[in-house]
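Lab notebook, bench 4. Still working through the backlog of constructs that have no structural model yet. Next entry is a single chain of 287 residues. Request: give me the structure tokens for it.
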Amino acid sequence: MIRLRRMTGDDVALGMRLKDRAGWNQTEDDWRRFLGLEPEGCFVAELDGRPVGTTTACLFDDVGWIAMVLVDEPARHQGIGTRLVRHGLEYLDCRGARTVRLDATALGRPVYERLGFVAEYELARWEGTAGSAEGDGVDEPAVGEALADASADRLEALAELDRRVTATNRRRLLERLLDERPDDAKLVMAGETPVGYLMFRGGSRATQIGPAVAVQPEAGRWLADWALGRCAGGPVFVDVPCDNAEATRWAASQGLSVQRRFTRMGRGRPIADRPAEIWASSGPEKG
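Model written out:
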């Protein structure tokens, strides 16, 4: 018998075990962030009393995200993943979501299409060793522009820039990431106005660079170079929309290579985001 229940902090070990078996990059901090942002929206599937699957749902105003759909290999092909996604969708629908989005692997895409999701655009996960290519380092910003700390007093301006580019109010996610790692975030300022920002965080396999947006290509390159400099010598992942030609050229120029691809998919009202200005997704969890 399949039973779904709410996930708690006691289930983080289960989440870690499942994501390790799948080869994913999340950490315990990521799982606790999911629970902190949406404590009623994280779920566990049990098969005959044994926990075998997870999913998370998170709502930003009326835009929802489904993520962390994981099922233990011996329990697959019994409809558990589909049950988890349907449960997450019901939760988000009850909370007033007009749009639900997710990043699908090639394996998961047919499942999501049967649930009414449609493909929007592709992202490529670039991986490599930071600082391994020629040309590393940060160029000096142009006159009137400067790299700046993403301090708490700039959070509102940073979140507004992110909202304009992603068409989603992710302020509480950005505030949480900034609180967790204040030294691993940077802005490019044009006077008092941010034209780009970038954050990064640790992962179990590699540092995840992102989220990052930039409305000027130069700002995106400065921020990306700064992040690689901070991660020099270590493995990195960067999830870049394929529509962002500038970010794609930058990743290739730094010696990174494409590990895998994701399809960003949506259900409900379409979202008019600007992937050409998204330099790095926050990861498949929340876009």
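Notes after review: The chain has a mean pLDDT of 94. The chain has two domains: 2-97, 125-280. Flag for follow-up if needed.
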